[in-house]
Every structure is written in structure tokens, then in C-alpha cells.
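Lab notes, practical 5.
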Amino acid sequence: ISSTIYLVRLFISQCQMDAAMSGPMMGHRSKAASALQRRISNNLRRILLTEQEILLSTSSGTGLMEGAVRSCTAKRAAIFSVGAFGDKWYKIATGNGVPSDIFKSELGQPTTPEMVDAALSTGKYDTICITHNETSTGIQNPVEEIAEVLKKYPDVVWCMDAVSSAAGSRIETDKLGVDVLVTSTQKALALPPGMAVCTLSQKAYERTASVPNRGCYFDLRSIYDTIQKKDYQYTNTPCVSIMYAMDLQLQRIMQEGVENRFARHEAMAEFVRSWADEYFSVFANRDHLSRTLTVISNTRDIDIAALNNSLIERGMQLGNGYGDLKNKTFRIAHMGELTMDDMRSITSSIVDILKLK
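Output from the prediction step:
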């Protein structure tokens, strides 16, 4: 019954989203487009707890990650990785010719404040890139502690990948001192993929002036300047259809209440962790667990692909381990519009399918 209710709810939500996305096209230089973007930006500020400017990009989050590290690094970037998506920061930087070094943690362990301090104390770096929430390992980095370290280095620009956590985990962007926070539509914002979002602090904006080769499409300075000069219009044509959907979804989030949304994600995370402890074990460091996804060690050596096939027949799905952790772990997401009923449904289904005791 619970899976049927979930599918009905999902169908209704999708119909509403489809209706929003099929709205009439408008000129992206029109006053209506400016009003739409201004409303989206204002609501995103409330979710990201920031007064900074909001930039949108018709791309995945990777696009604005590229824009961040390329636009803000005048000297050298220190990139901290706790898994596959931290490694992506480094791949992006080197692929764009940005001088950079990578500092890796053991899988399942966080980036520590001591690691950040040791790197920045060398004076070699003017930019750092950190993953807030790593979905390959289930780690949420201790950004509050890292923020204290960064107070010692006021000239360093802080770029943070919050693709899988923003709108699901409370991130006090301005209080932390994050200069460029990147997220995208398809994770905790619970929208179709295709657009990315970032904040841009005044410090980061000023840094871009000293970077000569910022690229074109993902040049954060150019995007920012166009927004200011043309009243929330963009350098390049945005995806108006997804903007319609984003406008609708942000209104839904405001109706739920931002703090209520964060609390719902935390409650789901605690439920899944407790279940994992009973039947398997949580993979990552217990002091630094993600609020939006739990990575579970495959301690019973189950056939994850076969389990997923059975779950799909019931209208559900989980994620296999990512990269080096494939088949060694599996992943249960608890983000976006998912609820405690959904968590109970998938976990009880796993117990039933595998005949766990």
C-alpha cells in the first residue's frame, strides 16, 4: 500500500511539474523573464542562508564548479577530496589548466581542519575547493570547523560543492564565509536535471578581475555583470522551462518551511542509519555523516543488482556503491521530496526481499 501511495503522490507531483515546464515560452530578455529570475534568486537566498548574488547556469553542477575554480584562481588551488566528486574538482581544475594540488582523505573519512590549515599555511594557494557532501562515501565534511581555520586566511576564496546537500542540509553560506557555493537542480531541490546554481561573494567577484583566462560560458564575472546591468537577465540563453519548474518547487519549499525541510531530512537520515546498524553497518565516519544519503557497507555480501531489480518491481530503487565501492556498499537517498514513509517502505522491502533477521 505504501509504495502505491508513493507512486500516486509522485505522479501528481510530476504532473504539476510537467504543467509548469510546459508553460508558454517567453523572451529571455523580457521583463517577465527578469521577474521570474528575481523571484527564483530571492527564494534561493532563503534556502542557502545568504545575501550573496545568485547565478544560474543551464548546465549540470559541474559547469559552475568549472566556472568557480577557473574564475577564482589567480595563483593556485588547493583541492580537498573525500571521494569521487572531490576528485572531480581536481579533474576540472587540471582540465582547464588551473594550477592545483589535491589533498585526499581515506574513503569514509572527512577533510579535517588540520589538513586545510597545513595546506594554506604554505602560502601557495589563493583558492580552496571542498565537497560539502560526498555521495560516493556518505560523508558530510565539517565545514563549520573548516570555516574557523579559514578565518586565518582572509584572502583565500572558498569554493564549495553542495550539489547533493543544498536544500536538504542546513548550510549557513554567509556565516561560514563560503564565497562560491555550487548546487544543481536534480538532488535535494527535487527538480529535473539541467540547471546549476551558485552564490558569488564580493570577495570572489573581486578576485575574478585578476584572472585573465576565465573562459566564456562559465565566466562568473561575466554572468554577474550581465545580471546587474540587465536587471536579472543572462549572458547566454537560459532554460526557461526548468526555471518555471524551479519557481514552482521553490514556492513548495517555502510552504513546507526551510527549517522544517532540514528537519525532515535529518529525521530520515537518522532512521536509515538506525536501520543500517541493525542489519548491515554504516560505511562512513559516524561523526561526519551525510544528511541526504547513507552509504551502507555490504556486510552480508548480498547481490545488490538483484536486490535492486526486485525493488524496481515494487516501484523503488537504491544505488550501488560508487566507483571503488561498487558492490562493497549500497546507497539509500533521503533527500528532496522523500518522506519517512518512503524510508520505511524501502527498508522494510529490503528486509522482506532478502529475508533478513
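Observations recorded by the TA: The radius of gyration is 20 Å. DSSP finds 13 helices and 13 strands in the chain.
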